[in-house]
Each structure stands twice: as structure tokens, then as C-alpha cells.
Amino acid sequence: MLTVITHMDADGLISLTLLLKKLGGARIRAYFTSPVQLRDTICHSVNKRTNLGKLYIFDMAGERRAIYAAAIYDHVVWIDHHRWTPEITLPHMEIVIDPEARSAATVVARYLGIETPLVKIAEQIDTNHVEDDEAEMLRNVIGALRWKFYGRELSIKLYHLAEELMGEDLFVLRNYSDIVSEYSVWVEYLREKVKKETKIFMEKGMRIAIFETTESVPVYIISNDLQEREGSFDLIIVLIHKMVKSQPVTKIEFRTHTDVDVLRIAKFYGGGGHIKASGASVSDIVTIPEILKAIDLLY
Ligand SMILES: [Mn+2]
């Protein structure tokens, strides 16, 4: 039995598709998660299982405890393109990191010896430089699924999509046109809200945009819209306030249009990611004045 834990985005999904292709469509146990939740997802994946076998992890950096958690599997192949160095190495864990690669799918394809146009699509979406219609369509389908579904149902939908992409015929994305148009209506509403409610600050000579919300939002839309309308920002911050089991949780997303290192502030909040795109999940209410203070402290 194979287990895959992959990032819940286009790059992570395509990485899973590549593995499915390599294995000829054999069923594998797949989990979609985020770097912030990686350790919990690994622990959850182990629950009540006696035979663990092999684990693949795609498109996520791992801190010490995530690596220890993964080490419970018999064999681990961990493939990523974020800039990090494993704090521990173990003989049964193969960690392949190429920070120069434009997507994790690029590294996965190389590792598995597969050549496919899907890699180019992953690269365009992951670097936020979408040029092809297929890449745009896939980004919208994943956005729509993440907007409409959650939990186990979302995982099943994403796995199904990963299987559909094995054929490399992006025409299958047309089957999602209804949900995508429903999603587009909501995206327009979100854009209006971003336009009206985004707050702009100057701190430490940096231009900062902050948007607060209570629903999950695709951050690239906010970041791209702001840049188009207001020019480049050094820091784009999205605060998503939620209640989880009657406790407040703040999901924070960080992006930049310039060269500011947003990984630094994400790490400060216990999160992770890339230099230009990162995030954290905090079990508390995080306010704007608090974030501005953190920026003052860190930069
Ligand atoms: Mn990626």
C-alpha cells in the first residue's frame, strides 16, 4: 500500500497525477494538506494502520517534527522545490529538494523519469505566471472545488481530478464548467470586497496591503488584483478568521510583489512556505495592529 501526502494546490495535484501515471493508475491512499498542517496529516494518516509501507510527500517543506512523524513509515520519498534543508536525515528517507525548480511537479517528473506537458502547467500556476488556457482552466477548477467542498468530500474530488489528468487531455476540465461558472460569480463578489475593504499601510518603508475575511479565499486573486489596480506591494497579507471547535483560529497568508522575504514573518507565526509566498495558522485572533507590530520587529 502506498500513501501520498501532497500539497492542496495545482502543483501538489499534478505531482500526484505523475505518480499515478507511473504506477499505471494503481489506487493509492492520498491526503491533500498544507505545509502548516503537514505534521498533523502525517499522524492522522497512520491512525489504526498496521502496515504502513511507503510514503511519498510532495511540494511541502518539513520541519523537524514533520520529518520524525514521516519516519514512522517503512520507506519515505519526499520531493519538494521549496528552499529548506532537512534538520535530520534518516537512512530510510530519501529527501529530494530542488529549489531552482519552478514546481514540485518538475522534480517529481524528473525523479520518476516522466515527460509530460502537465509539468509546464504546474510551473505556470505555481509561479503565478499563467499563460496557457489549460493552466487557467485547471487553476479555476481547483479553486472552484476548494470553494465548494471541504474535508473528505474535497479530498475525493481532488483525487478524482488527479486521476482524470493522467490522460493529459485537459478537455476533461470542461466537465467542471457549471461549478466553475458558479465560482466565477463568487470571485467577482470577492474582487469587489477586496477593492472596498483592503487597508493600506506604510511600515518600515514598506507598502503593505491587508485584507481581512471570515471565508477561505484564493490569495492569488487578491494579490493579482491589487497589483493591477494599485501597483506593487512589498507585503500582501490576508487574514482569515475562523472558529474551529469554538476556538478562534487565524489563517494568515503572506505574499509580495517585490523582493521582501515573507517567509520570515510566516516563521514568526509558526508557519512556513516560500520566500515570496508563505502562510501560518495561529490558534488565536490575530489583529492588524499586532501584525504591524510584528513587521516593525522583524524587518
Ligand atoms: Mn509548488
Overall description:
The strands form two sheets. This protein has a six-stranded mixed beta sheet with strand order 6-7-8-9-11-10, with helices on both faces. The chain has a five-stranded parallel beta sheet with strand order 2-1-3-4-5, with helices on both faces. Helix 1 crosses helix 7 (151-164), helix 4 (104-112) runs antiparallel to helix 5 and helix 5 (118-126) packs across helix 6 (133-148). It has 299 residues and is α/β, with parallel strands linked by helices. The model has no long low-confidence stretch (mean pLDDT 95). The chain has two domains: 2-177, inorganic pyrophosphatase (n-terminal core); 198-298, Diaminopimelate Epimerase, Chain A, domain 1 (Roll). It contains eleven helices and eleven strands. The chain starts with a strand and ends with a helix. The longest helix has 21 residues, at 177-197. Helix content is 42%, strand content 22%. The site of manganese (II) ion (MN) has 6 residues, from loops.
